[in-house]
Write a structure and sequence with these properties.
By secondary structure, the chain is α/β, with parallel strands linked by helices. The protein has helices spanning 10-15, 36-45, 51-55, 78-89, 103-111, 123-128, and strands spanning 2-5, 21-31, 59-62, 94-97, 115-118, 130-137, 146-161, 164-165. The two termini are 20 Å apart.
């Protein structure tokens, strides 16, 4: 197992490969269909009130945050997958979710020295590894708002790295 701690450096991303099992610790962002297009727009319009700086070396987990906990949603939904390239350009180093990605997205991850990892849908396990949570943006979206979590040893498998995919 490879231990990853946020913020994640370019050198660390270059060292991971498809199939590597990792533990993710530190602060991560959570967003899905409703929030991620808004976050992309904020970063592109420079109206992010410091959000982009926080994203440098960061992780985005494709999930909603609810009382039931967190668990991955499908990363290949249009609203989510189309956020991967611009958020990688904004500094995100690891996108975390489930499902296969399109070839164009795999190429964009490679061009931006970012990776994609899949996480098992084990909400109970992740609840024990979530130390704190904070609403960051879009409270009107309820559980689909944009959150920041502090996590300890979230388990994942690198599914896309350096132009290669596990799928």
């Amino acid at each position: 197992m490879i231990e990853l701690r946020t913020p994640i450096s370019d050198e660390v991303i270059k060292s991971v490969n498809v199939g590597d099992m990792v533990y993710i610790s530190g602060y991560i962002f959570c967003g899905r269909d409703a929030a991620l297009p808004k976050v992309v727009k904020m970063t592109q319009n420079e109206t992010d009130t410091g959000l982009t700086a926080d994203m440098n070396g960061g992780v985005i987990f494709h999930t909603a945050v609810s009382l039931a906990g967190v668990g991955p949603t499908s990363s290949n939904k249009l609203e989510i997958e189309s956020s991967i390239e611009p958020l990688s350009k904004a500094g995100i180093k690891l996108h975390l979710g489930k499902g296969a990605l399109h070839k164009e997205t795999i190429r964009a991850l490679d061009e931006n020295n970012a990776v994609y990892a899949v996480i098992p849908p084990v909400t109970a396990l992740l609840g024990d590894k979530t130390i704190e949570q904070k609403l960051v943006a879009f409270p009107e979206l309820g559980m689909e708002a944009f959150y920041r979590l502090k996590v300890e040893r979230y388990p994942a498998i690198i599914a896309v790295a350096h132009g290669r995919s596990i799928y």
